[in-house]
Please model this.
Amino acid sequence: MHYLIVPGLNNSGPSHWQTFWTKSLPSASRVFQHCWDKPQKEDWIATLDEAVRQLKDDAILVSHSLGVVTTALWLLRAKQQGNLPANIKGAFLVAPADADTVDVIKNFAPMPIEKMPVPVCIVGSENDPYMTPERTKFFAEAWGAKLFNAGALGHINSDSNLGEWEQGRAFLAEFEKGLPL
Model:
């Protein structure tokens, strides 16, 4: 299985769990957006599409924050256009940012509210400043996603000081066990 790491706003720095996972997962690569601090929806979706189309192996998208929103939008667009690659086996979505309420990413709104075309899970935090637990649960239900509660970890980012984030690795392993491969 290949893991395509999809960072959010401002990329994921050296102390972010996504950076650790990019280095430690057996097969991983990372999406590099053209502009990390002033994200444009169409550009981010196109960049993700380009990265996905280069994958040869079965893959799970491992997304964080605005990367979650980008992933959800891309999945639904690919489904609508009838060109969702068969090698995309699922999406592991961590700490989605709420594009409907977070000013800096409002150009990604509205948040999609339909079932995803591949298995997905959401890992949410009880005290995420960018998505309330109620909204996280709402999107999990709308997207047909399994929901993991990570506890009170803020935005599950570098500020959370998680290193390899073993709890997240356990969530990923549980999610992966349920995938139809």
User: Anything to note?
Assistant: The chain has one domain: 2-177. The first strand starts at residue 2 and ends at 6.
